[in-house]
Structure prediction request, 439 residues.
Amino acid sequence: MAGFWGKRKREQEAAQAAQDADLARRAEQALVATDERIRTAGDELAFAEAELGASLTKDLKAALDAVKTHLREAFQLHQLNHDEIPDTDEELRTRNARIVQLCEWAEDLLDEKTSALAESVARVRQAPQIIAQVRRDSEALSARIPQTRSTIERLSTRYAASAMHQISASADEAEQLISFATHGADVSERRRAARQNEEANLALETATEATRRAGALMDAVEDFEIEALRAESTLAEVVADSRGDIIAARKAPNVPAVTSAVAELEGALDALSPAGTPADPFAELTQLRTANTALDDAIAKAEYRQQNPLPSIAQVQHSLDDADRQLGVARGLISGHRGWIGADARTRFAEAERLRIDIPELMAAEDTREQALAGARRVAQLAAEALQLAQRDIDSARPQQQQDWGGDGWGGGRRGGGDVMGGIMGGLVIGSILDGIFD
Prediction:
């Protein structure tokens, strides 16, 4: 058996040694590769600064500085592995793992920053083609301006100014953006010819964005007409639905909330623009939907209240008084036996007191009175549970049997302290119940 365990131990040591050797080899290879990657990234940074300028390459420069700093740590760890001071296997393993970790982080960071910069470099190198595309887009967008103006004028005769304000100036704004894009393309060409690449790139980016925004503004005019027609169609459906709801409301419970909601919905219907006049279908649809939803909510609430009558304030107050009595009994018992009361009883009592605080504020409003009643009942339940648990803790803390109180001369038989306390507690609980009955 000893030979078996010895063989197994030697196998484990050999496997660990092989893993350590592989880790050391990976650490050396990672150091060499990362050091070479830093040199390559430095060359890429120099070329990028020449084409993009310092501001667009600052992220790569900062990353390169951070990588150089951390790679010095990796080289120091590698040096410690090969100095004259003997090291344990664990020390060598920890250092090599740290070297691999630092090199992998450096490679990932440099890859991320150079990839992001490569897009900008490619864009700069394609600047002539991009400038030509900006000019073509500007010409195409300029050709759309007259049609956009005509569409806005036509829609202005159909829709109110409140609806048209979101597109009424779109043609003028698009025309200004097109002019700005053309000017930006010219500036980019001049700056690039003067080898002011950073300013040239900025001008080209703003020109490209200007053409995009101009196109979006003119597309929004066409989208507006489609959305307005859709809003008109939906408005007609909501009008029909609202009139049906007003008729159905006659069968709903006759309460002030329903009457008021019906009046609001009728007012929203009366406020609709007459046929043939400019209208704002978006605003009218929003107003009518709001009034329609309010009526539905009022009817649902009235029907619920009809089936579930609202408790009176006196009923809630009676439940609250009962809860306060339960709390008082529990408070007295817990305060008188603090050293004997466990966590369960204390937790329920604390939760009951916390819930009790919010109940008076919930009693007045009809919307929260049911919540107040439920809260009062919950307080009473928690207080009763706390009382029961506290009594259990007291009984379990006492000795099972106590000495007689005077023997037979005091009436014979044994009267334990638990029996006396049980009688007292029974009287308190019964008294609280009887008080609740005759309130």
Remarks:
- The chain has a mean pLDDT of 83.
- Residues 197-248 form the longest helix (52 residues).
- The radius of gyration is 42 Å.
